[in-house]
Amino acid sequence: MSIRKMIALHPDVEGHVNQPLGDAAHHLMYCARMCMSCADACSAEEMDLTQCVRKCMDCADVCEATGKLAVRRSGSNEQVLKDMLELCARVCEECAAECEKHDHEHCKLCAQICRECAADCRNAAASITPDQ
Predict the structure, then answer these.
(1) Total-model pTM
(2) Domains in the chain and their CATH numbers?
(3) Helix 19-44 and helix 50-71: axis angle, to 10°?
């Protein structure tokens, strides 16, 4: 199953998917879930990881919201989508930087998906032009 295929099936898209946006939508779904899982794991660690939990939860929420906008193809709100993708890239980078401070495997994995998602969000934002 692929979110890219679902987007391509939308009547307004007619099979022509913005590939960078499809890639971002895919990563946004995974990144949101990975960040929530990392936040949960951080809360169970013996050391105080309050800041990591916060950054992961914020990242999960921003990824979730951005992913919802990315898969909507009815109508047009391209500037908002571009702004959200750019914001999401920054939030993912901040989360990755925080997770990279810790030696936990869940933090390392979270940082990796956040960096990948940030790159996809930047690529998708660059592919969007107003009135697209």
Answers:
(1) 0.89
(2) 3-127 (1.20.1270.360)
(3) 150
